[in-house]
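Review form for a predicted model. The reviewer records the input and the model, then writes brief findings.
Reviewer: anonymous (R2)
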Amino acid sequence: MAVLAIAAVFCSPLAGSLCAEQNDRWFFERLSAPSPPPVDNENWVRTPVDRFILAKLEAAGISPAPEADRRTLIRRATFDLTGLPPTADEVQTFIDDPSPTAWQDLIDRLLDSPRYGERWGRHWLDLVRYGESNGFKTDEYRPHAWRYRDWVIAAFNDDMPYDRFVRLQLAGDEIAGHDPGAITATGYLRLWPYESNQRNVPKQWNEILDNITDISSDVFLGLSLNCAKCHDHKFDPLSQEDYYRLKAFFAPICPDDGIVAATPQEKRRYQTQLRRWEKATAAIREEMETILAPKLVASGETALSKFPPELQEIYRKTDDECTPGERQVKLFVQLQLNIAQRKAPGNLKDDTRKRYALLRNELAAFDHLKPEPLTPVLAVRDIGPEAPPTTIPGATTPEAVPPGFLSIVAPGPATIPPSTRPKTSTGRRATLAAWLTDPGNRFTTRVIANRIWHYHFGQGVVPTTNDFGKQGARPSHPALLDWLARRFVADGWSFKKAHKLLMNSAAYRQASLVAPNAVAQARDPGNQLLWRMRVRRLDAEQIRDAMLFASGELDTRMGGEGFAGEIPRRAVYQKLLRNPRTLFLNAFDGPDGFNSCARRDATTTAPQSLMMLNNAFPVARARAMASRAAGTKTKPDAAVVDSVFRAALGRKPGPAETRQALEFLRHQEPRIAATRSPGAADSAQTRSGSRTATLPGTDAAASALTGTRAIALGTPSPLDKLEVDGPGAAEGDRFTVEAVLYLESLYPNASVRTIASRWNGNSRELTAESYGWSLGITSEKSAHQPRNLILQLTGEDIAGNPQYEVLASALRIPLQTPYYVAVSLSTGAKGGQAVFYAQDLSEAGAEMQTATVEHLFAGSLSAPGRNLVLGGRDGSAASMFHGLVSRFAITDSPLPADALLPGSPSPAPDRILDLRFDENESAPTWKEYRGSKPKDQMRDNPFFEAIADLCHALLNSNEFLYVD
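Model under review:
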C-alpha cells in the first residue's frame, strides 16, 4: 500500500506516465495517438489497419499471404457475423458478382441480418457468464432471465453505441428508469449464482458482491482484480483498497423480483385497472387473506427459525429501524421465506380448504377486470439513497471504503454528481458507468477494441483478452490497439463500423491455407504478426446450428423463453441451465455459466468424435439432408451428390469428389442391405419406409377396435410425432384419452415414451404458460419403474397454486405387444382422480387392468394455444414415442369403464376425436396431422441409408467444422 502510494506521488499517473521501473505496465499508460506507419508495399494496403500489420511484417522480412478465394471469404464473413454458413446460392452469387463493391455489399447485408445480433450477442453472453438458473445443487430455473438475453441481441442488431450499452447494464435504473429496455439491461447485475437455501445471508451476499466485482473487472477493465481481494496485487499496480473501492460501487444494490419493464404510461394504466379489480374483489380477497394468514405466519415462522438468531432479530425489525445493510439482509431472508409461504394454501384442511377453494373460484369470475401483468424482469435497484459500508476484511481498524476508481489513474474517492443520484438510489453505479465509458478511458476502450479484433482474427492483439496485466500476454501490435481504441470511440462506439473497418482490411482477407513460408516459419511460427489468416474451428453453437441449416430444418424465430431439448431453433435460445449443460456446449468447449468466458477453447477429444458419429442429433440431421437430396430417386446419381455437397459445404463437388461419392454410395448400399435378413429388411421397410403399418400380434377379435393399419412414430419412422389439427373442441380439464399401441422400445435413461400430450414438458417453471397433461410410459431408469403407464399433470391445485405431479398407475405395458391403454381424468374443487386402463390385445379375452390414483388438481391443465400432440410433446424433441399407434381417441369428459372403446369400438358421437389409420396417405384423415419434421420423402431402405451415411460423413468433415 505505502509503496504504491509513493509511486502515485512521484510517477504522476494522472499525467499518463509511469516510473521507469513500471514501464512494462503499458496498459496503465494513457492511450497513445499513433499514425498509421508508412510501408513499402502500398498496393497491399486496403485500410489503415493494414499499415500497422504490414509494417511489422516488412520489418521481419515476411510477406503476407495472398487474398483468399471468394468462396472462403463469404464463408468466413458469414460465420463471423451471423454464426451460420452461407447457402450455396449465396456463395455462387458472390463469386459471380463483378461489382467492385461486392465485398462491402456482402458485409452490409450480413450486418443488416437479425442473425448478426444472435451471433454477437452470444459473444457478450459468454463474457458476462449468462445462465438461466441459480447454479449450486438445486440449480433452480430463473423464469425471466431470458429477457436480458433478448435485450442484448436487440442491442447488437440496433448497433447500440457501446458506451450506452455499458451504461445501461450497470445503471439503467439510475440513468433511464422510465425506459423498459434500460431496466431489462440491469439483468447483467442478476447473473450471479445463488444458493436458495443458504442461511448465512451476510456471507452469501458478500460473495455475490465479490462475484459482480470480479466479473465487472474482467469484462470492462480487462484486469484480474480478484488477485487484490486479499492483498495488494503482486504483479500489477493494484492495491487491495482498489478492489474494495470498485466493490463499493455495487454495495447498495439489491435484487427485487417485483421490478417490471414498463413505461410510466403503462404503469399508470395498469394501476388504474388494478384498482377497479381490487374494488370489485375486496370482500373476497379479505376473506381469503383472513383464512390464509395463520398458515402464512406459521410457514414464515418455521422458515425463519432455520436462520441464526441474529438474522432473526434483524428480520423482525421494521425497515425504519434497520440500517441499509440490514435491509439487504431482510430482503434475502424474505426470498427464502417466500418459498415456504407459497406452499401455505396447500396446508389448509377440511372445511377451511373447501372455503378457500370456493373463494378462489369466485375471485376467478372477476379475471376479466384484472389487468394483464406488466413485463417481469430480473433486475436490481439500490436499497435506498444511503449505501451500506464497504470494509476491508481483517483490517485492524475497519473503516468504510468509499467508491473509487483505480488509484493509479484516479486516487481519492469518486465524486457522485447530484444529477446521477435519483431520490431512491445512491447514484454510485451511474458514476462508475460514466467513468468506464469516458472516451479517454484507457482500459475500457482498449479492452473492447481488442475483443472485436479477437472475434474476427481468432486471437486478440492482446491474446489474454480478460487480462491485460503483467500476467497476461503482451500486445503483438500495441500501436494498432491504441489506434483501434481511438477509432472505435471516434466512430461513435459503433460495433458495425468496427466490423467494416476490420473486414475490409487486406489482413482479414488473407488466405489461411498457404504454402509453407520458410522466413515466416522461422521468425514468426505462431503467426503473431498475422502473415496469414488463422484457421478456426466452429464453436459449439455454430456446429449445432450449421447442421440444422444444412438439413433445412433451422427455425429462425427470434426471442422468447429458452427452449429445452433439441428443437430446431438457434442454440442461443436454448434454455441455459448452469449445471446440466446442453449437448453441444458440453462437448465442444462451451462456457460454464459461472465464469467470464473471454475465449472459447478449441480442444480435440475423443468424446467429440463419438458424439458427432453416434449421437441422435447429428444422425437425424444427416437423415433430413438425405431426405431432401434423395427426393423420389431410387438410385444414386450425380444430382444427389451435388445436392448433398451444396447443403453441407455450400459448394458443388469437384469431378473427383463426385466419382468418389458415387463409388461410396454404390458400395455402401449393398453393404447396408447385406446386414439385414430378408424378414428384417421387410419389417423395416414396412414400419419405417411408410407412414402406416399393420399392428402386429393382435387377436382377430380385436380388429374392430384396432383397425387394419397403424401409424409408425419415432426414429427411424417417417414421422417422429404428429400435431393434431382436426378437433373442433378441446378436451378441457376433465377428459378421457384412449389409444391402441405397440411400443417398440424404451429410452435407456429416465425419459418418458409419450403417447399423447397437450404440454411442452416444462415442469420447472410452474406458470400458466407451462400447464398441460401428458400420457406416457416410463423408461429404464425412471423413479417410477420401467414400463409404468403414467399421467403427468401441470396445473392449479385446489388452493390455486401451480403444481406438477406424476400420477403413476403401476400398470406395466410390455414391449412389442399390442395394447389398449386409457386414462379417465376428473378434476374439481376437492381434487379428483385418474382411472387408468390397460388391456393386452394379443390374447383373446385378456382381462382389463385398472388402477385409480387420487390427486389435488382443481383444473387449468392446459395453456392457451397449446397443441395436442400424438407421440411427443408440443415444441419439444424430448420424450418421444417409438412404435405404432392404430387408434387414438379423446372424450371431453371422464368415461366410465363400460363406455370405453373396448366396450363399444365403433366411433361414438360424444368423442371429440376418434382417429383410425385405415385410410391411405392421401385420404382426408391425413389432413388432420402434420409431421413435426419434413420427413415425407424419407425412406428407410439401403439406398436412402447410404445417402444418409454420405451426409453424415460430410457433417464430420474438416471443411464443415472449420473456417479457413
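Findings: Residues 1-23, 677-690, 919-939 have pLDDT under 50 and may be disordered.
Further findings: The longest strand covers residues 802-812.
Recommendation: see findings above.
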